[in-house]
Every structure is written in C-alpha cells, then in structure tokens.
Amino acid sequence: MEKLKIISYKDDSYDTSGKNGEFTVMVNPSSYKHNYTVSYSKESETSGALYVTKKFSNLGEEEISFDFMLDDTGVIPRNVENEGKSVDDMVEELKQCVYSVDETEKEISYLELNWGTLSLRCRLKSLSVDYLMFRPSGEAIRAKVNISFMGQTDQDQKVESSSNSGNMTKIVTIEEGDNLPMLCFKMYNNSGMYVQVAAANGLSSLSDLKVGASLVFPPII
Questions:
Q1: Tens digit of pLDDT for each residue in 101-116?
Q2: Based on the domain organization, do 140 and 161 belong to the same domain?
Q3: Virtual CA dihedral for 195, 198, 204, 209, nearest 10 degrees?
Q4: DSSP 8-class letter at 26
Q5: What single DSSP character describes residue 93?
Q6: Total structural domains in the chain?
C-alpha cells in the first residue's frame, strides 16, 4: 500500500537537486481536511445603498491538515524507511524534514505532499505531537502527530488587482501542450485575444511559448 510521503526542498523551484530529504508515515491518515479560501475587496459604497458589494480579489491559500501515528510497540508493522527507529527518532526526522530553517536563506523548508491523488506543494503551518504510551524508563513508544500545511498557490491562480481598474492581471506558467489561443479562451472565454496577449508579452510568434515561462494576461480594457 502506498504511504503518504512528505518531501522537503531548499527553495520554491522544487528542483530535485535541491531536495533536502523526505518523511514517510508509518500508517496513512484515516482522513484529512482540505480547506480552500477566497479573498474579496469592498467596492465603493454607493450613496443610499443598503449594502456594500464584495468584489473578488484573489484565490487564497489552501490548507491541509491530518493526524497520523508513530509507534514503537511492535503492534504496527514497520516501513523500510523507519525500521529500527524509536518514536523520538521519527519525530526528529519529521522535524528535520518540515521544521528546519536554512541558516543561509533564513527560510523554512518548501514541501511537497504525495499520497494517491493528493499532490500539494506547501509549507508547514503547525506541528504538534501527543505522546501516548511510554516504557517504564519514560521513553515514548507511541505518539500521535497533528500537522497542517499552507499550500503554495499555483502561478495560474495568482491574481493581482489592477491599480487603475476593477479588472485583473493574471500570470500563468506555461505547461506542456499549452497554446496561446487555448489559454486565451481559458482566461477570457475568447481565443481571439491571443493577438493582444502576444503583444503584451513581446511575442513575435505563437511558437515562442516556452514550457515553464510566465505569461501575463492583461485586463480587458
């Protein structure tokens, strides 16, 4: 059975060359909570209006949280990744993966969660460990971990308000198979906008699109 894995990277490029480490849970969570938020801005109040209309501003951060167990009683079968490790060892390994700060960049790790259809680039929001069972010596042999993460918003979800109007400028990261008319239809519901978008991005040809590059979609005036 595939186990939930947390992979740590040193920066937000998520390049494998910058991989710091990874942590695999002993037992998959029985459930997880995935929150999505939206931010709104207030429109100018109209004289005599009974209420203020809220206008979409941007997609907010995703948040995901779940619990999982760490066990050294022998009741729960071990993974290869945690064979021979105590509960304290596993907690320390988890902290090194999600809670460590790069002393050079002064940044906490960039993370990626992978489990089945769940794949999320994120950063740690909170981590707590409840120690539940102990040996006579006081060594913990079972613990419950509660952990939550804030999602890294995808580039095509990043929306910044235009300073001069209620329209929005959108920035999209080009992916394999994308073409300009298709992206224009997605952004404006009008594939014919590709001429204006190409001009706004200094593109002389539709074949100039490069995977991984950012493309600006200006507001419709």
A1: 887 778 899 999 999 8
A2: no
A3: -130
A4: S
A5: H
A6: 2
